[in-house]
Sequence to fold (350 residues):
Amino acid sequence: GQQLLDVCHSRSPCILVDLLSSQVTTMKFSAVILTSLMGVAVAFAPVNPSAFAPTSALNAATLNGKTEEAIDRSMDDVDVDAKHDVFDPTSGDSPALKRNNNDEVWVPQRARPRRNRKSAAMRGMVRENIVTPNNFIYPLFIHEEDFNTPIPSMPGCERHSLASMLNEVGEAYELGVKTFVLFPKVPDELKTNLGVEAYNPEGIVHRAIRMIKEKYPDSVVCTDVALDPYSDQGHDGVVEDGKILNDVTINQLCKQAVSQARAGADVVAPSDMMDGRVGAIRDALDSEGFTDVSILAYTAKYASAYYGPFRDALDSHPGFGDKKTYQQDPANGREALIEAALDAAEGADM
Fold:
């Protein structure tokens, strides 16, 4: 974890991808890459200025130990000793280049994006994206046991007891990571088709929220809104005759989101992919006075095998079939834009 933060602080060149299955074991950070919401988070390193010195050497420059003379920008005598015909881009009825007032070769283009890249200071001023510890959301897998359990398919990650969870929050806090998202492994005996344990005010997630907010009141606590950890069917929604019921599921999700807000959640994150759930959850929260609780929508969630390790962590693999009737087909890009537009219109904050 410290190595990862050192990378961020030094702004070493890297693209930070989902770290859930990374080998970083000290602090198992994972970047939430919504990133249609955030864009791709890219950190750029300050570099030795000589690394990008102009190779054309407008003034004398040293390359590989040899000194090159300044370039004559008129380019008049460049090919004077050529033994063959050489095309002159500045000559003819339709020249590719012109000459400026100093008789230098010139492309008459006003817009030159390279101006904003001409120095480290300039690049730093116009940089659009940068990753710092503030950008991370630390996923914490929790269970009711008083010991931690490794997650084999996520090397370096484990299910935490609530006491261990609180210690992890403290360590992360000291390193500048102050946002956390909770994912529970629920005992089998508490799982039902309707997922009623999801809105139990004394459930594990609700107790975890209260613990974190009591000790670290300035932290940001996010919660997963979906029924699969609480379902005896292993699906994100209520099942009837093999079908996932959209509106009945949303009824339960609204109860879950409001109960999490009552426990102190700052952000609720519906990951279920039911149609219309963002708008319904927004209305449910607002009607109960939780207008400041944010919604982070899993907007374009694909039916992907990459969720396998995550389902291992929560013991929430589908009890039958798959999730393709509600999660997206990876072949469809335009469909993702439709989902994003709907979630934004329904009130998603992220």
Remarks:
- The longest helix spans residues 246-263.
- The chain is about 25% helix and 15% strand.
- The mean pLDDT is 83.
- The radius of gyration is 28 Å.
